Amino acid sequence: MPTLKPECAARGQSGTATAAPPRANLAASPRSTHRRRRRSALLPSVLTFAVIVASGGLLLLIEKGMLNGMHTPAPLANAKQTDHQHRVAPRDPAVDVESQILQDIRNRTIRAMCGQQNSDHSVWSMSSPQRKTLLQHILVNEKYRFLYCYVPKVACSNWKRVLKVLSGALADVHVHLKMDHHADLLFLSDFTPDEIRHRLRTYFKFMFVREPMARLLSAYRNKFGEIKAYQHKYGAEIVRRYRKGYAKKGKVAGDDVTFPEFVRYLLDEDPERMNEHWMPIYNLCQPCAVQYNFIGSYERLEGDAAYVLERVGAPQDVRFPERQAWYKPVTKETLHYYLCTVPQKLLRELLPKYILDFSLFGYPLPNVTTDYCRH
Ligand SMILES: *[C@@H]1O[C@H](CO)[C@@H](O)[C@H](O)[C@H]1NC(C)=O
Ligand SMILES: *[C@@H]1O[C@H](CO)[C@@H](O)[C@H](O)[C@H]1NC(C)=O
What is the pTM of this model? Predict the structure, then answer.
């Protein structure tokens, strides 16, 4: 079996969650099994859609710069939110008004939604595999006292570089070295429960999110387009399962998985056990159980990363690296093209699977109407 070296693997995971073999029972009516197993928590609620519509509209305003010069709405009068004022206290690094509004939307949405569903509200009440996933995705920096929950395909390699520089393991972020995703990194799972509790309570906690479909497409293009080990392991399996006439074929390269085939595979996978590159961000970072102080966006990476570095008190000369030259961005057009190759029926099942990533982080659902796809 080929070893999988995913670009942002969690410690000790390369053989387990990262490269979890497709579940054996999948052949037997997998989808219905999953439906029964899925918690109602993942089903879209009326509230979810209200939130999407609301935040989608706001995001549109933000995109168009229409909120410049407007003030953030006053917080609800509730004791928990009195720290609201401190955000604009002089000591706080400047973060532009749009980013601030986005944070506010995310905070409010998370508060409203996490209260609604019977989701895991504490690290200690969630199932043990879920907790393991979470703790293996939170990186710790002791010197600057922060926790970073990394999400694969959301600039996590560059954040790991930054963490290594901050802990003194790397001279600077531009060092031309193949990134080692385990060495010199400290994971929350390395600590005892008491130490974990203490850090969750007192350290600055942040994560970065990305438009869910762009993240999936990025994973698809990278893993199936470029990484041999993934083609062998996942690609071959996907082709056997979903391509007519391939079920019993002896040798399948798995290097030509189509995006619709990948989507069909995702629909049959359990979000709590998926490979981390396509596991919903919600399951990786558990924003209902961990109160993140800052949720940055991949779409505004430069500004948001600079804010975090300033906020944790990193030395001035530590800057977030620019995109590597080989990086292939997912453009709006590319995303549109790929999404429109997926049959409507599959898309209608796929979006609910990632609904918490859309709604909690304020991403509007993509327009995948036949009308739109005709253009
Ligand atoms: C969002 O919530 C976090 C955690 O409670 C808090 O630290 C942060 O200041 C809040 N941000 C905004 C913009 O309200
Ligand atoms: C989707 O796109 C089509 C065609 O451009 C447009 O008519 C429709 O109003 C859009 N729907 C939404 C929900 O934006």
Answer: 0.78
